[in-house]
Amino acid sequence: MTSGKERTFGNVKPVALITGSAKRVGRAIAKHFAEQGYRIAVHANQSMDEAKEFAVELKGEGIEASAFQADITKETEVKDLIDYVYFYFGRIDVLVNSASVFFPTPLSELETDDIEKLFQVNTFSVLNTSRWAARKMAEQATGGAIVNIADWSVVRPAKDFTAYIASKGALTTLTRSLAIDLAAIHPSIRVNAVLPGQVLLPPDAGEKKRQAAIDATLVKRLGDPADVAQAVQFLVESPFVTGVCLPVDGGRTIFGGEFYDATVHG
């Protein structure tokens, strides 16, 4: 596996576009790729002040970076985003679809507007951003890598999040389908997904909720956005891996909450 520091094209370093990278997990992914020597396209919609500040911070560390605004629920703005990033940097090597919305959706309170918003941001924008970025990647001899950020709960759904989980669950099928379609266009365009567990607790989470999150894993620690970033890098820089949906959840997907004791259960 080679890092962005090693993987240059002549004297040109690779470019990573991370949607929703002004804050939270997207920012951690962008920061990680910057540290690996990538040039960074920071994306935001309503958080442009934070995006610009982040880009300035990266530039202060010697990283070529710029902030780009787009409402990714609108296809025209998605197309413009890809064109602007490509024009600014001259290439797009990595796309990480990190932008997301998340809120409870109990069936008794579910509105059509909620469903549409979740699918527009979490599902449809991923398809549109991927297919337009892939057009640029197809022009490059080296192709490119796309990583979608889904959610561990698509395997073990939680109560009152049906619409959200459905919008993220679609990404596993979308990832595999895109991997097939885009490889037919250019065999060096690969598409994978990360399914993170709980890597960020709510600001108001108390010690009880924190401990519950730890107890729900096999590794007995909290997840961290850096765990997701490392998994994304692995998928980006592993040339024989495509169509993979990788859980990064400390074993939470497979752990039922207690260890099975054969001497008790027979």
UniProtKB/TrEMBL annotation:
<protein>
    <submittedName>
        <fullName>Oxidoreductase</fullName>
    </submittedName>
</protein>
<comment type="similarity">
    <text>Belongs to the short-chain dehydrogenases/reductases (SDR) family.</text>
</comment>
<dbReference type="InterPro" id="IPR036291">
    <property type="entry name" value="NAD(P)-bd_dom_sf"/>
</dbReference>
<dbReference type="GO" id="GO:0016491">
    <property type="term" value="F:oxidoreductase activity"/>
</dbReference>
<dbReference type="Pfam" id="PF13561">
    <property type="entry name" value="adh_short_C2"/>
</dbReference>
<dbReference type="InterPro" id="IPR002347">
    <property type="entry name" value="SDR_fam"/>
</dbReference>
<keyword id="KW-0560">Oxidoreductase</keyword>
